[in-house]
Specification:
- Helix 4 packs across helix 5 and helix 6 packs antiparallel against helix 7.
- It is built from 9 helices and 7 strands, in the order ββββββααβααααααα.
- It has 244 residues and is an alpha+beta fold.
- Strands 1, 2, 3, 4, 5, 6 and 7 form a 7-stranded antiparallel sheet that branches.
- A hairpin with a 2-residue loop joins strand 2 and strand 3.
């Protein structure tokens, strides 16, 4: 297990390992470039990167990144483990990752913890809310600006004009390169930002304002529709009662 902390930006250029790797941003946002995709991940995402897979990673904000490396002989024999996957991080998974951070624990104890961690990951649903970032320069400019300030309420037409493109071009690029409409993509950005703030213990009404909602009730409705639970229930499911 390695731990890296960033107070700004921490970048790891394209590289690969002879071992499998798990990457988890305990705090902050992890931008991961792998398998031809550029993804934005938060605390609720755990990235599985099989050995020899070239990847590039950037930890943004006041972040903390945990990386766990393991022999390919330890991975389950399911073919899914031979491909990049992003799975959900529940409370127990988070606790195990933190537990394994202590390299001084006895080998037998660490072995049991690793076995349990693999079992949890094997049974975890893959996250469908990973945020792909378009590679097109104009759309990427819009995407990065919204990630930096999710409360920015400019319309698609405003954004297109700011990057010198037509609204139709920007909309088509988002749909083609991210698999989402511009509107859905922006909503996902706001959800990710909200999850980060909720994890920091920020009150819901402050989170709502920070991600562009003047009405707390409208924010809660959007969050529930997108995530499947209210902000309070989500926070308890990920962080336990310490954040409620």
């Amino acid at each position: 297990m390695t731990r890296d902390i960033a107070a700004g930006v921490l970048h790891f250029p394209a590289h690969r390992h002879d071992t499998d790797e798990l990457m988890w941003a305990r705090r902050g946002r992890l931008e991961l470039v792998v398998s031809g995709n550029r993804l934005s991940l938060h605390r609720g995402h755990l990235a599985w990167i099989p050995s020899r897979e070239v990847h590039e990673a950037t930890l943004l904000g006041d972040g903390e990144l945990l990386c766990l490396f393991g022999s390919t002989a330890l991975r389950p024999r399911d073919e899914r483990w031979g491909h990049v996957r992003v799975v959900a991080v529940g409370e127990l998974t988070a606790a195990l990752l933190t537990h394994l951070e202590d390299s001084d624990r006895p080998a037998t104890e660490r072995g049991r913890s690793v076995d349990l961690l693999y079992e949890l990951i094997n049974n975890s649903e893959e996250r469908k809310d990973t945020l792909a970032i378009p590679s097109d320069a104009r759309a990427s400019t819009v995407a990065n600006a919204l990630i930096a300030d999710p409360s920015d309420s400019r319309t698609l037409e405003d954004w297109a004009r700011s990057v010198g493109a037509s609204p139709r071009t920007v909309a088509r690029t988002f749909q083609t390169e991210t698999g989402m409409s511009f509107g859905r993509w922006r909503t996902t950005v706001r959800v990710h930002a909200a999850m980060d703030l909720l994890g920091q213990g920020t009150p819901v009404h402050e989170v709502a304002a920070a991600v562009g909602y003047s009405s707390t009730s409208a924010f809660i409705e959007m969050f529930h529709t997108t995530v499947g639970s209210t902000p309070a229930v989500y926070t308890r499911s990920i962080f336990g009662d310490s954040h409620t």
